[in-house]
Each structure stands twice: as C-alpha cells, then as structure tokens.
Amino acid sequence: MSTTSAAADPIAASAPPLRLVRGRGLRDWIFTEPAAKLAWRASLPGAYGYDQAAHELRILGATGAAPEHVLALALPASWMVNSKATSITFRAWLTPEGRDAWIGLLDAVGESMSPEGWLSAEGDRDYAARAVAVLSEAGAGASLAAVSKVLALFRPQLVPLMDDAALAFWLGPREELPADLDADRPRGAASLFVPAMDAFARAMRSLEPALVRLAADHHDAVLDAAQALDRLVWVDSWGYRHDPTLRWVRDEHAEYIVRLPSKRTTLAPTEIGELSAAEAGIARAAAALP
Fold first, then answer.
1. Which pLDDT belongs to residue 286?
2. 255 and 143 both lie in a single domain
3. Which domain holds residue 94?
4. Are 17 and 236 in contact (CB under 8 A)?
5. What's the rounded mean pLDDT across residues 166-171?
6. What pLDDT score was predicted for residue 183?
7. pLDDT at 216
8. Whether residue 139 is found in the same domain as residue 64
C-alpha cells in the first residue's frame, strides 16, 4: 500500500476507518485506510485476477450457467490467491462424488443467501458443514482454505477466504488452528467453517452500509460488500507482512494495522504505549482514536 497513491486518490484519502466489534473476548478491530488497503491488494496480480474471475462467474451465473457446469473453470482460479490444492485435489473434486459434494454445498449456501439467511438456516448450515468436511479431505492440498477459495468465487456475497490467519482473526486462538501460522501450510480444521461463516456474517451485518460504500468506490474490480470486508481482513491478518512500514498496534480496547515512519522489527503486536509520542499520535489519528 503506497502512501503516495493513497494521498493522490481522494477516495482513499477520505474513506474513514471501520471499527469492528468482534466480541468473544477479542479486542475490537479498526480497519485503517480501508480504501487504500483495497487498492494496494488489487495491485497484486493474483489478487486482481481472482477478483476478475469472481465477477466473470457472477456474470455467467446471471445468464443461467449452473455452477457445476463451470466448476472445472473455477478451480484453477483459486490458485491466484495461493490455494494449495493440487491438480490431484481438483481431479477428486471433479469426480461424480466430488461434484455431488460441490452441488450440495452450493445448494446449502445459496446464490441469493444473505448474512441473515445464513445465520438462521439451521439445516443448510449442517449440510454445508458436512460437504466442506468431505471436500477438505479429497486429496493432496485439500483443506478448508482451499475449499473456501473456490466457494467464494461462486458465493462472493457471503463467503470469506479461510486462510489460517483469517480464521485466527475471526475466531481467536482455537485448538483447531495452529499457533504458528504459515500461509504455505493451511491447517485450519474443516470444523471451523460454520464458526467462521457466522463471525463473518455478523460482521457483515454490523458494517454493511460502510462496506457497500467502500465496495462501490473501489475502481479495480466489481466487489460485493462481503468481498470488501474479506479483502481488508486479508491485508490486516496477513498481507501487511509484505510491507515493513505496516505495524500491528493495539491498546486496551482495539487493534489495527497502521503505517508508521519506522520499520517494524517484529510481526507481533506493539502496545501503543511502547511507541514514541509522535508515532502513537499517527496511530491514533489513523484509527480515529482520541
């Protein structure tokens, strides 16, 4: 994320921070510079291509193409966001048994399902969880993260990408999650699918008006509000690691990723009281804190 490009872009410069109340003993999270972060992510070739693929599938769905008829086309698109599913996994997913699991999952997580619909759909939630469990065990590289990166292409209005770092963001420490996060070795258990979907749906419900505006103002791809939230979570849970001037800062009540003049020396969160007065002021201003 470039401060120069953000400052030159009036939308990026004017987009206010978004505060998410996560609950469950987790501090609130503040998405600073949300428009600039979306623009930075879109500058990454794979991320850009993935968003374009999601929109093309959106168009195909609107013309009547059934997901099972374009599943084979969608699977390799997930590689653009670093899915670790292999061609062996894709073959398993394209067998009759694999296709049946995908069709069942896409029926349970409906094309027009809203966050409220998901949170109230008891039978569909259980069926979706079973289908995800089957698909997550389909072969080399199959995982919850890999399944989510295909499912989100077909259901962008509702489904987040479930890399381990994103699961940790949504759910906090869990036995089903590794403590040593590694993007190249997704190990989040399939049993976390429903809890992660629930947390994401609740966040969508609380931030929807601001996310709709943010997505509408994003120029690099057609995004749903849910996609805007998911992309911000990727930047703040993992992507920030690629820019040493982005720091994870927290105080008693909130956490946020913010750009500071000095380069970080750790990926661990820095307490705001440990910053210099000047940098603490920059952090508070970016997060719109007093």
1. 94
2. no
3. 3-242
4. no
5. 97
6. 87
7. 96
8. yes
Question: In terms of domains, do 128 and 266 share one?
Answer: no
Reduce the DSSP state of residue 258 to 3 states and report it.
strand
Contact (CB, 8 A) for 191 and 19: no
| Cβ atoms of 275 and 248 closer than 8 Å | no
Does residue 184 share a domain with residue 87? Answer: yes
Mean pLDDT, the chain, rounded, equals 93
120 and 60 fall within a common domain? yes
Angle at 16 between CA 14 and CA 19, to 5 degrees: 170
Assess whether pLDDT exceeds 70 at residue 6. no
Together in a domain, 237 and 259? no
Question: In the 8-state DSSP scheme, what is residue 239?
Answer: G
Nearest to 200 by CA among 235, 236, 164, 167: 167
Over 90: is that where the pLDDT of 8 sits? no
Find all residues with CB under 8 Å of 44, minimum gap 6, and list them: none
Q: 73-94, pLDDT tens digit by residue? A: 999 999 999 999 999 999 999 9
CA distance 227 to 239: 15
